Amino acid sequence: MKAAIITIGDEILIGQTVDTNSAWIGAELSKSGFDVFTIISVHDAKEDIIYALKEITGKADVVLITGGLGPTSDDITKPVLCEFFNTRLVENSQVKSMIEEMMRRRNNPMNENNRRQSLVPECCKVLTNARGTAPGMWFEKDGTIYISMPGVPSEMKYLMTEHVLPELNRRFTSQIILHRNIMTYGTFEAKLAEILTDFEKGLPSNIKLAYLPSSGVIKLRLTGKGDNHKMLMEQMSSQVEILYRTIPEFIYGEDEDPLEKVIGDLLKEKKQTVCTAESCTGGEIAHLITGIPGCSEYYKGSIIAYSNSVKSTVLNVPDEIIKNHGAVSEEVVKYMADETRKLLQADYCIATSGIAGPDGGSEYKPVGTLCMAVSSEKRTITDKRVFGTERQTNIIRFSMAALNLLRKQIISL
């Protein structure tokens, strides 16, 4: 089954609002066996909405529309839908009663704008909205179902969950679509694709592989389609096992778990703790770790030693080490990691020092240079990497590289 999504709103096109609705709808439709083949965002303009509807007509079994159903003059979706379906707006008494009751509960007066929301196209089936004043609307034309919903995420999700998905699942004999997400770190997309050339060639025709890179992490998404759930599960599991055998050094987890959560689970399992000593990352690693619920069980704290004076006076990095090797060096981060681990009495410490940019680089240490260390009681490991020139991107990439070094240290001991 084919599905299309149309989002209506100038705020999306000019970047004021991020379109999270389409992502959520797409994920839910995929679970029900629909192929979402297009997502279109259009202006709050009649000609643009009509054009999008006509473009999709005949190509989709289901069209999901969000936005433009509010009480103000710029919300024009309902009149445009009337034109497209050759119908007129009529007052719906059930919707009007719900709006009146909602206004009473909120102690707000019912005004003309609220009353206008009880007008719906005559040919639609009304989907009651217990989360807001704008109803959902279900249309059918020439074998295609069109569903219009508010753009407010909580209201859209309510209508999808309570009305839309149950009815679509009842009407359509869904094909089964399964996804498996394998999380990797430690190489770049082109190289990973080269390594997996034979794996991709050997995939069954009903299973596809997608590469989804972000800040150094590459998510490998396997998507399988079939009509037998058990057989498809077995097929997918078999391919995942092949991936683990092919690239074990790059896989750190599944199901979109972030690297910092995987590390937290490892530390909890081993009943161990970690702390951080950050220079160039400025607390980003600490931020990532403490973003995971329950991190107080394994995270001790951080020292942000941004200046050389803090490195030497607080973390006891000898002045001659900084002078001879520079603050951005494996020698310095080794001291930082060892001293902070002892100071905060943790099992592990991550330390970073680098040149995030855009200035400060040299011929020998260009912008994007990162030196990092992970200290434990048994050993301290260091590494040096060079990334790009964009500061904020570097800070994230530096942090991910250091976390992955920690992960490797934990699983190797």
Brief rundown of the structure:
By secondary structure, the chain is an alpha/beta fold. It has helices at residues 10-13, 20-31, 46-56, 77-84, 93-105, 112-116, 153-171, 189-195, 197-201, 229-246, 259-270, 284-290, 308-313, 319-325, 330-344, 391-412, and strands at 2-8, 35-42, 62-66, 89-91, 119-121, 125-127, 136-141, 144-149, 176-185, 207-214, 217-226, 251-254, 274-278, 299-304, 348-354, 369-376, 380-386.
Low-confidence sequence ranges: none
Look at the structure and give the mean pLDDT. 94
Derived from helix and strand composition plus strand pairing, the structural class reads alpha/beta
Count of DSSP strands: 17
Task: Please report the distance between the alpha carbons of the first and last residues.
Answer: 50 Å
Strand content: 25-35%
* Largest sheet geometry: 6 strands, mixed
Question: How many separate domains?
Answer: 3
What are the defining features of this structure?
single chain; 26% strand; six-stranded mixed β-sheet; Molybdenum Cofactor Biosythetic Enzyme, Chain A; 3 domains; five-stranded mixed β-sheet; Maf protein; 41% helix; alpha/beta; 413 residues; Alpha-Beta Plaits
